[in-house]
Structures are given as structure tokens and as C-alpha cells.
Design a protein that fits this description.
Chain B: It is a multi-pass membrane protein. Chain B: It comes from Umezawaea endophytica. Chain B: InterPro entries: AA_ABC_transptr_permease_3TM (IPR010065), ArtM/GltK/GlnP/TcyL/YhdX-like (IPR043429), MetI-like (IPR000515), MetI-like_sf (IPR035906). The complex is a heterotrimer of chains A (about 300), B (about 290) and C (about 220). Helix content of chain A is about 35%, strand content about 20%. With about 300 residues, chain A is of the alpha/beta class. Chain A has two domains: about 35-145 and about 245-285, D-Maltodextrin-Binding Protein, domain 2; about 150-235, D-Maltodextrin-Binding Protein, domain 2. Chain A starts with a helix and ends in a 17-residue tail after the last helix. Mean pLDDT of chain A is about 80; it is low at about 10-20. With about 290 residues, chain B is mainly alpha-helical. Chain B folds into two domains: about 1-40; about 50-280, Orthogonal Bundle (MetI-like fold). Chain C is mostly helical. Chain C has a domain at about 15-165: MetI-like fold, CATH 1.10.3720. Classes of the chains: A alpha/beta (about 300), B mainly alpha (about 290), C mainly alpha (about 220). Chains in contact: A-B, A-C, B-C. The interface of A and C includes residues 177, 181 and 197 of A.
Chain lengths: ~300, ~290, ~220
Amino acid sequence: MRARTLAAVLLAGGLALTACGKEGTPGDTGGTAPSQAAATDVKIDGSPTFEKIKARGRVIIGVKEDQPGLGFKDPTTNKYSGFDIEIAKLMAAKLGYAEDKIDYKAVASAGREQALINGDVDYYVGTYTINAARKEKIAFAGPYYTAGQDLLVRKDDTSITGKDTLKGKKVCSATASTPIKKIRDENLTEPENITEFQLYSQCVSKLAEGAVDAVTTDDAILKGFAAQDPDKFKVVGKPFSLEPYGIGLSKEDTALRGKFFDVLEAALKDGTWQTIYDNTLGKSGSAATKPIIERY
Amino acid sequence: MSSVLFDVPGPRARFRHRVLAVVGVLGVVGLLGFIVYRFADSGQFEPRLWEWLQYETIQIGLIEGLLNTLKAFALGAVLAMVFGAFFAAGRLSEHAIFRGPSSVVVEFFRAVPLLIMMFTFYYGLPQVGVKMTPFTVVVLSLMLYNGSVLAEIFRAGIKSLPKGQTEAAYALGMRKTQVMVLVLLPQALRSMMPTIISQLVVLLKDTALGFIITYEELLYYARFIGSQGQFGRPLVPITIIVGAMYITMCLLLTLLANYLEKRNRRNKKVQTAVPVEDIAPAGATTGA
Amino acid sequence: MSVLTNFSSLFLSAFGTTLKLFAFSAVGSLILGTFLAMLRVSPVPVFRAAATTYVGMLRNTPLTLVFFFFTFAYPLLKILKLDPDPTAIVALTLYTSAFVCEVVRSGINTVPVGQAEASRALGLTFSQMLASVVLPQALRAVVPPLVSTMIALLKNTTVAAGFSVQDAGSISYSLSEAGADTLVGLGWVAFFFVLLVIPLTLLQRSLEKRWSVAR
């Protein structure tokens, strides 16, 4: 109680505020799908990761925390939500671990491979594009979603309809990211119109304020922002690259990889995948394209 | 009045001052009024933008950010003092072998911008296999930069002591280390205290650079809250609150510095040989 | 060396931006800072209080937070729209002016009261006293620490790189985007800063030595 009072005093800065913190969340943030029943008696032969999970009794999943609709931590509840989180939960359920046995660990893009190699996380679900360079260090199960570079614009903006209408418009993306490199390399807008910030959320703030005209990155990330503020933003919906998202896991663990492929295939067939999509990214109003699993 | 410029005002000057005071008050009130009007007009007083303050998890998050800031500050400060003392001793050494390299190190780290140092450790070094957490990078950079500045402060403090102190100590038969540890350092430390503390204020402020390399300190958390669409992106409120927190922390440190300075002045034994501003080396009190 | 030659235009334009930020903010903060110092020594209490509050606030706020405010929060107040570069100049000017103010004020205070009193006794007017007695003496105490403040300003321009300004601090971002060696690139950036700062430091030292008056 003392810390809480202290907190309030510090925060209120003299304003008369209540000493007790509010709990809960002001609104729907990322969306959660109906939870999956945890499977029982799961056996995966020859999976060192699964052995570790069993010994620990808990699953540690690497995720993102700053992407609404995908992997998002709500600061009012410290709970994670979004499409990636639901996929992660589905995998855990099929391994026999319900939601209360999951520990999430936020790992930023740059640290993902290392976290998997070190074994800091059992597997990673967080806008993780499958590519050959990464496959040399780790393995992927998926794609569980196929994203593509797209544009987020203000709702009332009709002048931007695709990548070729960006000339003369101010475009924002994450500093030194692949999407902004594409804009620059293909000369889609003038160099002086490119704005770069560290986080997509900062670009979105600038879009809301009117300082930039479009935010570009994977459509899944943009849909998340659009779903959070559907009255303000929309996704153009003409992706101009392919970014297949996979579940990252240790390269050696082929048994667990096989299991994840089975789960994903089943989920795509029986409608679980669709339910998850509709309850998370689908809220942005964009339709889903089911990915085609590429087993290896 | 502290100023030397003005004579004691006569009746006409007093009248003029009163007129100016009214103009000044009007000006300040006008400016504040304009700012408040802009706040109200652009909807910054809407309750939705301030609602986040009431959530317990966010309050705890802010406190955690604050603790991370203080953690980097505390460790950075201790290490910078050690670093500073070491290199000050190096620069004051009688042997050129120590003096030369110490000078190069101190001058180099004072000249390189702190942010460039952080970038080098965080983005550059992993290329050669040296990986550090953002916390380590922040503390290490703060140590190198502020330590170098402190080294100069220590050195200036010791040099500003009257020569007689050293000579008397030698005359009493003390050895070099004894002279330094028993005679020079205690006096220098006391007269340098205010300068040292204002450099620590700089160090505290510089921890905020950590957010650019993803160290999860106060400003980092402010950015996180400021991006929350569910609260209408409360960027203005969070900046104000975090700013107030920084100003409070720094003011507390500054008050400590002022208190120590006053206590020193009362104490006749301590000579404040050089005014603080004069020995503050390049960028000493003007860090980021 | 190859990083420097391959990306020479990047280095040139980035350091050009840095120097531009520096020049504009230096002039701006010198003017604003001197004005604030005048307010701080003014006989009117309101002026003193206003300037003291301003200086106290800005000196105790991290520059990064000042940037953060002007980049993200200030535009929401919809007062005057600014591009990233002018935003950086405004942030740097406001921040540095608080330090300039302190330097100028303490410089004026180093002139003994007797000097002003003597000039008044000799019948000098206020402006004559300022121009030929107080300011020349204050200048000696002001210039060396002012050079230090300007050195700090030069280094502080790099903070703008975190706020979408393509200055010297942003070189590493551009290099990593191009897949070049960022470590070597950052080494060069550090080297150029040392090159820029060392002459200023030497200037400051020699001024300090030559102009220090025993009082």
C-alpha cells in the first residue's frame, strides 16, 4: 500500500488523485480467441526442448510486446494478446500446457536468433520472417501467416492507393529496417520525405498528427495498429512483398518442428486458425489469406 | 540585489520598475495563458488522455522505469568516480609514462559524444563478437565520459590547492602517497564537492540517452505509454509527468550541491580556491 | 578506410547537417541566453523569477526529453508546424540557452561592485558603464566557459539522430542499412568529433590561461 501511495503521489505531481490504482483495462486492446483445452499425455520422442519443458513444468515463449493485434503487452494488466500470442498459446496447448503454464518473454527483433540458440526461450512467435539466412542458425515451423509490405494511411486519405502513389508523400518506418530500405532502393518517394523512428508506434503517432502521410511495414503489423484505432487509420491492402511468418525454434529439434507442422496443418483445416484471425487481426476489417504450409 | 550593474533606485527608477513589473507579470501570465489555451484547445485536458495514470500496473511500470534510471545512475556514478580518480592520479603523476596515456584517454572520451560511444558499444562491437546488454552499454558509456570529466575536476581541485600545503607536508617528512592521501585529497574533495555533484546531475540526465539504445529506463517507458492507442496516445501528459520526475531528481541533487557549497563557505578551513565555473572543463556542466 | 571512401557523400552530408544544427543553435542560444541573463540580473523581481524558473527547468531536464517533447508532444498542441531539422534546432537552442545564461550571469557577477560604483561616481551613464567598464571585464570570465558550453552543444547535436534527423549520429543507422561495417564507421565518426572538439578545447584553455585575472 505504501508503494502504491508513493506511486500515486509521484505521478499525480500534486494533483489530487486517488491513492489506489485502478485495475483492468479501459477497452479491447488486442483480442483473445477462445482458449484451447490443453492436450493430455503428449509424447514427442527425441525432442530436447520438450524434455526441458516437461522438466520445468512451464513453457517459455519468446514474443513481441509492442505490436497491437500481433504481440502486445497491455500496460494496464501486463497481459499479452494478439495473433502471434494466440498461435503461441495454441502450440502450448497442443503440447499439454494451458495458458497458466506459459511464461512470455519479450525479445526484440535483433535478439531473436541468439535467444533461441541460447535456449532462453523454447520457441519464438513474433513477426518472424522465414528466410534462408536465418534458417542456417535456427529452424522455422510455418508459415503460419503470410504478410507483405503494405501502407498504413489516415482513414480519409484517398490519394495513396499503393506503392506507386507515394511520390511526394511523407513515408515513415523503423530506422534502418527492410521496408524503408525497399522504399529508398526502389525510389518510391523522395529521400527528403523519408522519416525514420525506432518503433513503428512512433511512426503511427506521427501519422495521427499529420506529420507523415503513410507508415510502411508488414501488413500484419499495420493491421494491428488499424484495429486499435479503426476510426483513424486504414491499411491500403496492396502488399508489395512477401514475408512468411514462422515459429522460430532450435535448429536441432526436428521432432518438435514436426509436431508444430502437424498442429498448424490441423488448425488451418478445422477452422481454429480462422477463429484466431477473426478475433485478432481480422478486427481491422481486412480479410485473411490462409498461408500454405511448407514442411521441411 | 546581487547585481553590480544598478545603482540603488531613486523615486523615478522605482516607478519605472513598477511599470516594468506590471508588464512582466502581464507577459508571463499571457504566455502561461496561451500555453494553457493551446492545451485546452488541442484537447490535452481531456480525461481520456490522463486516465492511464490511475492504473496500478502503469504506476508500477513508471516506478520500475525510474528504478532502472536510478540503477544506471548509481552504478555509473560510482564507476565514473573510480575511473576519474584513477586517471586524475595518472595525469598528476611525475612519470611521463603514466601522464601521456592518461591525458590521451581523458581527452579522447571527453571529445567523443556520449551517444556515439553508446552506438559503438551497442551496434558496432557485436560485429567483432562483443555483445553487451543495453544496461551495460549505458553504464560503461556513462563511466567513460563522466569519468573523464571527473578526472579533470579532481585534477583541477588538487592543483588549485596552495603550493604551501604540499611543501609543508614534504617538510614534515611525508612520502608522496601520504601527501596525496592525507593532505591534498581531503581538501580537494571538499572544495570540489559542488562541482562533482553538478557533474553527477549531468550523469543522471544522460541516462535518458539510454532509451535510444532500448535501455528500459524512464523515458523508454514514457515512449511505451505515449504510444498506447487505447488511451489516445497520451504523449503530452506523459512528457509532462516524466519531465517533472527528472526535474525533481536533478533539483534534489542540485540542492545537495548548494548545501555542501554553503557549508564549505562557512568552514574557514576549506579554501574554495577557484570558483566552480572556472574549473569546469569542456562540457562539464552542459552534458546532454 | 574503405567505409570512409565508399560512403564519403554520406559522411559529408551528415557532418554538414551536424554543423548546420550547431551553427544555428549556437547563434540562437547565445542570443537567447544573453537575453535571459539580462532578465536574471534585472532589478525587476518578476523578470528575475521568470528567467530563474526557465533556467532551473531546462538545466534539470535531460536533452533527450526536450527532444522527445518537441518531436512528439509539441506538434499535438498545434501551435506552429516544424520539420525535424528546425525542431532539433529549437530543442538545442532552448536547452543550451539555459547554460549560456548561467555562464553570462556568473561572468557579470565576477566584476567587483566597486567597478560599477566607481564608474557611476565618475559620472558615466549606464550604457557607458556597461560598454567600457563592466562588459570588457566580464567578457574575460565569460568567454572560456562559453567555449565549453559550445563544445557541449556540438556534441549534443548527435542526440537529434534519435529523432529522425540525418546528422552525424545517424551515420551508423545508414551504414547498417547498407550492410557496411558500422564499427569502423562509428570509429570515423568519433575521430571527426575529436578533430572538431580538440581545437576548441585548446582555444578554451589558452583563453583561460591568458585571461584569468587574479582577484
